[in-house]
Design brief:
Blueprint (H helix, E strand, L loop, with lengths): L14 H6 L12 H13 L11 H4 L2 H12 L12 E5 L6 H15 L6 E6 L2 H16 L2 H6 E4 L4 E4 L5 E6 L12 E5 L1 H4 L5 H9 L9 E6 L8 H14 L9 E5 L4 H5 L1 H5 L17 H12 L3 H11 L13 H6 L10 H7 E10 L5 E10 L5 E10 L1 H5 L4 H9 L3 E4 L6 H15 L9 E3 L4 H10 L7 E3 L7 H13 L2 E3 L3 H9 L3 E3 L2 E3 L2 H4 L5 H13 L10 H4 L6
Parallel strand pairs: 1-7, 1-8, 2-5, 2-6, 6-7, 9-13, 11-12, 11-15, 13-14
Antiparallel strand pairs: 3-4, 4-5, 9-10, 10-11, 16-17
Helix pairs in contact: 2-4, 2-5, 5-6, 19-20, 21-24
Length: 569
C-alpha cells in the first residue's frame, strides 16, 4: 500500500510505534465531541468501590481506556452522523482493571442510551467474574447518591435499570441460553478468551451480533487477556479478525475496532527481549495505576519462573505472549516449527506432485483419543523433506475432553481433522488406508518399510492396507518411547537447518506446543502421558514416518505423473 493510498477503516499499521510512544494502539476514530464530553464527564465521576479512599476514575483510570470509551460510545461519521464503531476487541494483560473499567463503561452507556425499554448485557465467562462485574457496577452507584436517583438496582436479578428510560443492564454468566428473545443494544463480554473453551460460543455470538443488522443496532465490546492455552474457538477467530483489521487486511469497512496490547510476533519469539523487564512496560498500559512493576517482577521470580509450564502461563497472562508463538511446551523443535512452514501451505496432492518418494506414519489411539497420520515426502528437486498430516477424532472426545473441544472443531473446519461416530466406527482406519492407497497407486511408496506404526489398532490397519493391495513388507512396526529418540533429535536438526518443511497446518502448531521431551539416560522420550491425551498423536505419526524416511528409501519406480498417465520428458 502506497503512502498516499487511503488505509482501510480502523487499520493501524503503526500500532507498535504507538505502543513504544506510550499511545493507545488503535486507529484514529472521528467522534461527536459533545457526546464524547458527556460520556467522559459521567465516566470520570464514577468512583472505585474496592479501593481505599474510593478515588474517582478521573484519577484511577488509564488514558488508554478513556480512548477506547470515547471511540466506542461517541464515534460518528462526519458526513452522515452515523455510528462507525459497532464493535471493539481490546486485549490487555491481567491486572489492568479491565473488569472494573468495563463495568463503569456499561453504566456510562446505560446513562447515555436514549431508546426506551431496551436491553444491555454485561457478560462474564464464570460466576465469579460476573459477580465481580455486578459488584463493581452497583458499588459505584451506591457511592454516589445522585446516581442512586438515576439507576434502580435489583441485586437478586443482577440488573441495573435507568429509571428515566426503563432500559436495563443485566449482568450474566455466559451460557448457550443467555440470549432469550430480545436483541441487546449493547453487549460487553469480559475475558473473551475463556469462551474459546466453551462449546456453542460461536452460535451465541452470532445471536448477539444479530442486533447489529437491525434498525436499532447493537454494539459489542469484547475485552480480555491472552489465553493461557493456545487460542481456540471463538477467541481464535476473533483474535485473527482483529489482527487482520489492525494490519489493514480486514476489508475496506470493518465494524470492529481492534486495540491489542501485544508485542510483534518476532519479539514474542525473542525470549531475550521479553525476559528483559525493561521492555514489559510496553504492553502494560495500566502500569503505575493497578500494576506495580516491582511487585510484578517479584511475582515472576517467585511464581512465573518455577517451571517452563508456569512461565508459559505467566507470560501469556501478564505480557500477552501467545502460547505456541512465544513459548512452546518445552520441546526445542517447536521453536523452529513455524519458520519451517511452506508459504501458502500444501495439501496432499501438491506434496505428491513435488516428491519422488513418500512414507507414512500412523499413530492410532483409542476412540477417546486422536488417530493421526503423517506423510513425509522427499522433494525431487531440493531433496527437502515435506510433511503433511491429518487426524480423526470420535465425536465422544468432544464430551470427554471439553477443554479441547472447540479447538478440535477449529481443526475440522480447517480440513485437518475429521470427526466420526458410531455410525461409521472404522472411519479413521479406512480414511488413513485411503490416503496410503493414493500414495501406493501413484508409485510413491517404497517396496519395503513404507508405512510405520505403533501396535495400537495395528491389526485393523494392516487388514485395511492389505485389502488395498499393499504388501506386508511395506508395513513396519516402529518402536515407541525411547526408541523414537533418533527421530526426535533428527527432526530438531532438520528443522534448524531448513531441510524439513511442512504444510503450515494450525493443528500441528498446537500439537508441537503440547509436546514435552524428557531426558532418560542417553535417550529422550515423548509420551502421551506427559503431554496429555488427545494432544500429540499426529506428532507421533510424524516421528514414525521420520524413522522410515531416514532409511533413504526409493519409490516403486513410477513417478506421480506417470501414474496419472502423463509422459515424463
Amino acid at each position: 500500500m502506497s503512502a498516499t493510498e487511503a488505509l482501510p477503516r480502523f487499520a493501524c499499521p503503526d500500532w507498535w510505534e504507538k505502543i513504544e510512544a506510550g499511545e493507545t494502539p488503535m486507529a484514529d476514530v472521528p467522534v461527536n465531541a459533545d457526546k464524547a464530553a458527556i460520556a467522559l464527564a459521567f465516566f470520570n465521576r464514577l468512583r472505585l468501590p474496592d479501593v481505599a479512599g474510593n478515588p474517582p476514575l478521573s484519577e484511577a483510570c488509564g488514558d488508554w481506556f478513556r480512548d477506547i470509551l470515547v471511540a466506542f460510545l461517541a464515534s460518528e461519521d462526519p458526513q452522515t452522523g452515523a455510528r462507525i464503531v459497532w464493535e471493539v476487541l481490546a486485549m490487555v494483560p491481567k491486572k489492568s482493571s479491565k473488569s472494573t473499567y468495563v463495568a463503569a463503561l456499561a453504566l456510562t452507556a446505560l446513562y447515555l442510551e436514549a431508546s426506551p425499554n431496551s436491553q444491555m448485557l454485561l457478560i462474564g465467562p464464570s460466576q465469579n467474574i460476573s459477580a465481580r462485574l455486578f459488584g463493581q457496577a452497583q458499588g459505584m452507584i451506591r457511592l454516589d447518591p445522585a446516581l442512586a436517583q438515576i439507576f434502580h438496582i435489583q441485586d437478586h436479578l443482577k440488573t441495573i435499570t435507568r429509571r428515566q428510560t426503563g432500559t436495563a443492564l443485566s449482568v450474566k454468566t455466559f451460557d448457550t441460553g443467555i440470549i432469550t428473545g430480545e436483541i441487546p443494544v449493547l453487549t460487553i463480554i469480559d475475558e473473551l478468551h475463556e469462551l474459546g473453551k466453551k462449546s456453542g460460543a460461536a452460535s451465541v455470538m452470532q445471536q448477539i451480533r444479530g442486533g447489529g443488522i437491525t434498525m436499532k443496532g447493537g454494539q459489542v465490546m469484547m475485552i480480555t487477556t491472552q489465553s493461557d492455552k493456545a487460542p481456540a474457538g471463538i477467541w481464535r477467530s476473533e483474535l485473527d479478525k482483529a489482527r487482520a483489521i489492525r494490519d489493514g487486511k480486514g476489508g475496506a469497512r470493518p465494524i470492529m475496532l481492534p486495540v491489542l496490547y501485544e508485542f510483534p510476533v518476532d519479539l514474542q519469539k525473542d525470549e531475550t527481549f521479553w525476559r528483559d523487564r525493561g521492555n514489559w512496560h510496553f504492553v502494560l498500559p495500566n502500569l503505575g495505576l493497578s500494576i506495580d512493576q516491582a511487585r510484578l517482577e517479584e511475582d515472576y521470580e517467585n511464581n512465573g519462573k518455577v517451571t517452563p509450564e508456569a512461565e508459559q502461563i505467566w507470560v501469556s497472562q501478564h505480557l500477552n505472549i501467545e502460547i505456541g508463538v512465544g513459548l512452546s511446551g518445552g520441546w526445542t523443535a517447536a521453536e523452529d516449527w513455524e519458520g519451517a512452514a511452506i508459504e501458502g501451505g500444501i495439501d496432499l496432492a501438491q506434496l505428491m506432485e513435488r516428491c519422488e518418494v513418500a512414507v507414512v506414519g500412523i499413530d492410532g489411539g483409542g476412540l477417546d483419543d486422536l488417530f493421526g497420520i503423517a506423510v513425509i515426502g522427499r522433494d525431487r528437486e531440493s531433496k527437502d523433506w515435506l510433511c503433511w498430516t491429518h487426524a480423526w477424532a470420535h465425536r465422544r472426545v468432544l464430551d470427554r475432553r471439553p477443554i479441547i473441544a472447540e479447538r478440535l472443531r477449529d481443526f475440522a473446519a480447517q480440513g485437518d481433522l475429521t470427526f466420526f461416530d458410531e455410525r461409521d466406527p472404522t472411519a479413521d482406519v479406512e480414511g488413513a488406508a485411503d490416503i496410503v492407497a493414493r500414495l501406493f497407486g501413484a508409485g510413491l511408496l517404497p517396496d519395503d518399510a513404507a508405512i510405520g506404526m505403533d501396535t495400537v489398532q495395528v491389526y485393523a490397519i494392516i487388514e485395511a492396507l492389505v485389502a488395498r493391495g499393499l504388501d506386508e513388507e511395506q508395513l513396519k512396526y516402529v518402536g515407541q518411547d525411547w526408541r523414537l529418540s533418533p527421530a526426535i533429535w533428527g527432526l530438531e536438526r532438520k528443522l534448524q537447518d531448513g531441510t524439513f518443511r511442512h504444510a503450515g497446518q494450525r493443528m500441528m502448531d498446537w500439537v508441537l506446543g503440547n509436546a514435552k521431551v524428557e531426558q532418560r539416560g542417553s535417550a529422550v522420550r515423548m509420551t502421551k502421558e506427559a503431554a496429555g491425551k488427545a494432544k500429540i498423536d499426529p506428532l507421533i505419526a510424524v516421528l514414525n514416518a521420520f524413522i522410515l524416511m531416514a532409511r533413504n528409501p526409493e519409490g516403486q519406480g513410477r513417478s506421480y505423473l506417470e501414474s496419472a498417465g502423463l509422459m515424463v520428458l
